[in-house]
């Protein structure tokens, strides 16, 4: 049984978001450099510019979480995992996704929803004079991030099921 028709579009979303958002890294570096030059070279600066660096930095880490999961870039205690067969790794990924990843990220999405909706309802803006006027957009990533990770978690579950079902099918065929 193959789940590729489901896995590929899910992973394509996280791949696109991750690669697109990675360009903000360049923006963070350039804007940080500009902030430093303006501050120490010309004794001037703008709050909106400093807040922009913070926003971009937050977007990179929040929106690329699903991409990082897809590419196995998150911290993992793999003392045993890396030595496991693909069959055992599939079990670890399946159970870890169902009992750890899904409950945690569903909880994050659930608790952040009211926070995000409130920010949108009041059109939350920076509390600093000259700050950015769209804090609500930044806070929206608190809800988007768990959705992207949950999508990637679904792809991991489907991939694990595929491995487990193929293993079972091969084992039965050998009888």
Structure description:
This protein is mostly helical. The protein has one domain (4-174). It has helices at 4-21, 24-42, 47-63, 65-70, 86-121, 135-174. It is elongated.
Helical region count?
6
Shape: elongated
User: Using DSSP, what is the number of strands?
Assistant: 0
The helix fraction, in percent, is: over 70%
Which key phrases capture this entry?
175 residues, 6 helices, mainly alpha, single chain, elongated
Element layout with pairings:
Layout: H1 4-21, H2 24-42, H3 47-63, H4 65-70, H5 86-121, H6 135-174
Can you give me a brief rundown of this structure?
The protein is an all-alpha fold and 175 residues long. The chain has one domain (4-174).
